[in-house]
Amino acid sequence: MALFRIARYEEQENVTNTEEQAQVLLQRLQVQARERQLRKQKQQEAKAKASPTGDKIPGSPKPAHPNPSSPVPPEPKRKAKKRKRGDGSPHRLEKSASETEAESSPRGTGSSRKPKGKKKKKTGKKDPEAAAGSEKQEKEKDPPEASEPSGETSESPHSALVLGVPNKKTLPKVQPFLPKWLAEPSRVQKSVKNDLVPIQDIPGIHPCLQKKLKTNGILSYFPVQAAVIPALLESASHGFLVGKGGYQPSDICVSAPTGSGKTLSFVIPVIQVLLERVVCHIRALVVLPTKELAQQVSKVFNVYADGTGLRVAQITGQKSLAKEQEILVQKTDSGYHSLADIVVATPGRLVDHIDQTPGFSLRQLRFLIIDEADRMIDSMHQSWLPRVVKAVFHGDDAPGSSPLFRRVEPRAITAASTSQPQMPLQKLLFSATLTRNPEKLQELGLYQPRLFSTGLESQESTVQPGIEQDVEGKYAFPAGLSHFYVPCSLNSKPLVILHLMRNLKFSRVLCFTNSREHSHRLFLLVKAFGGIPVAEFSSRFGPGQRKMILKQFEQGKIQLLISTDATARGIDVKGVKLVINYDAPQYIRTYVHRVGRTARAGHTGLAFTLLLKVQEQKFLQMLREARAPELGKHLVRNEHLKSLVPQYEEALAELQKTIRNEWKQKNA
Ligand SMILES: Nc1ncnc2c1ncn2[C@@H]1O[C@H](COP(=O)(O)OP(=O)(O)OP(=O)(O)O)[C@@H](O)[C@H]1O
After folding, report:
1. CATH of 481-667, one of 3.30.160.40, 1.10.150.20, 3.40.50.300, 3.40.50.2300
2. Which keywords, in A-to-Z order, does the entry hold (predicted)?
C-alpha cells in the first residue's frame, strides 16, 4: 500500500511543480538533446543534416540508452530494481500497473524528475497531500525516466513544458488469475436426490462400516461422498506413509452445499484408514469453530468407530482441562500413552492441550480436518494452525514411535527426500462457503491442493482475486430450498413472526436475529404472547444449557428456536422445515449457512427473510450477485396481522415489565 501511495504522491507532485523545477528540467533536457544530437551526427552524418533539430529521425529505432553520461542508470538495471519490490501477488500486480502508469508517463515522469543531487525546494503552494509523501520516500524513489529516449523527450524542449498534465495514456490492465487448482476443480454432482451412488459401488470400505451405514439408514452415498471418499482412500492407500512413488498426498478442499453430507465424506475414509492401526496415537484431528459443532461431529465419529477399537476424544472446554487430559493421555511406567486415535477439538482448547498436557503428542498425526474452513481461516489470528503444524513436525516424539519414520514438512522433491519412508500430514478442508481467495487459503499452507466443488456453472472463470473484490464468490444452495423475502415495517416484524408461526404450523422453526439482545427480547415477547413453545439460543447460556436446548429442539419440545448466528453453521437438526431471518444477515455467507439449516439431505425447506424497505435493495442485490436461486416475495397483508394486535399489545406490556425487572436485578 505504501508503495502505491508513493506513486500517487509522485503524481501529485508532478502536478504541483514549480516554475523553478521546470526550468532545471528544461535545461537538463536541452543538454541531453544536444548530446544525442552530437552522437547521432557522428554516427549518421548525412541523416543528421537532413534533420535540423537532430533530436529524432521519424521512424528511427529508440536507442537503448541515449546518454551514457546521464546520471540515470541504464534502463534494464532500473527495471530489475523495481521488479525486486514486487511480491508476485495479484494485488501487487495491480499496484505495479498503477506505478508503471505513473512512471511510464512521458510528461508525468518528466515533471517528477529532480536533478540528481539537488533537493526539491519546498514551496508554500505545495499540495498538502503531496506534502504527506515523506522526504525519505522521495529520496528512495527510483530516478524517473525523463532521459528515456521516447518520442516526447526528443521533441523540442518547449513541448516538455506541458508538465503536470495528467497522463491519459492507458496501459493494458494486468489480469489477476486464479491458480489452476481453484479455477479447475473436480466437479461434484449437485443433486443429492438424483446423483446417488450405491454403497457397494465404492470399493475399499470395510464391510463393518458398510453395515453401519445401512443401519443408520444410509443406502447410497451423496455425490460429495462418492467423490471425496475414493480420493481420500487412494491418497492413503499406502497406509500412513507417503503416497505412490514417494509423493506426499495432495491436501483436499471440499466446497459443497449445506446439508450435502460433507461430514460422512471425511468420517468414513478416516475410520477406514485408521482401522489397521496397531498402536493408539492421535492420527486424526478435526478442528471446528464451536463446541456444538464439535459435539455433533464427534457423535458421528463415535457412531462409526463403535466396535472398531478406535477411540474418539472431544476437547472443547465443556469439561475441565484435567478431565479432558484424562481421556487424552495415560501415564504409565514406560511413559505417556495416547488414549485417543481421533480428536475433535475447538481451536482454543486444542492449543491449551498442546501447551499444557504432558504426553499430548501430534507427532503421529496423519489427517488434519478443518471443518467450516472459511470460518476457521477467519480465526487464524489465534495462530492455532502454526501451533498444530509445529507440534506435528517438531514436537516431542511419541513413545513407541519409530525413528525410521521421520516427519519432514513438505518441500521440494529430491531423490533423497523420497528415499525414506515418511508419514505425511494431509489437510482436509470442508465448507459450504469455502473461500476462493488464494491469499486467504495461502495461510493454511496447503500442499498441492485439490478442490472438489459443486459450484455454479462457469463460477470459477468469473471469480477474480483482487484487493477490493468479493472473492467469496457464488455459492451453491440446496436444491430443495424455496426462499422468500417479506417486506415489513419495523413495528410489524414481531407480528409477522407470530403470523407465520400460527399459519404455517411447522413443528421446528429456526429464527435468526443479529444479536443476543434481539434474540432475548423476541423470545420474551413470543413467550408473553403465548401459544408457541419457544426458546432462545445464544452465548447468554453456558455450554450445558445450550446442549439441552438443542436436544429439546431436536425432540420437538421447542417449536420456535430464536437464535443468534451460534446455530447458523453446521448444526444438523432433522425436521427443520422453516428458517426465518428476523434480522436480515449482512453477508451472503451468513445467509447461505442460516438458510442451510433447512432443506438438508435432499429434503425440501422454506426460508423467509423479513426486510425493511431500506434494506430491500441491498439485500436483493447481494443475492443477485451470489446468483442465488430466485428469491420470491411473500406479502403479509395488514388485515392478517390485525387480529393479532390486541394480544400482541398485552405481550408488549408484559415484555416491558420483564425487561425492567431484569434491568433492576442486574443493577441490584
Ligand atoms: N448418504 C446419505 N444418505 C442419507 N443421509 C445422509 C447421507 N449423508 C449424510 N446424510 C445426512 O445428511 C444430513 C446432513 O449431513 P451433514 O451434516 O454432513 O451436511 P454438511 O454438508 O456437513 O452440512 P453443513 O454445511 O451445513 O455443515 C445429516 O443428517 C446426515 O445424517
Report:
1. 3.40.50.300
2. ATP-binding, Helicase, Hydrolase, Nucleotide-binding, RNA-binding
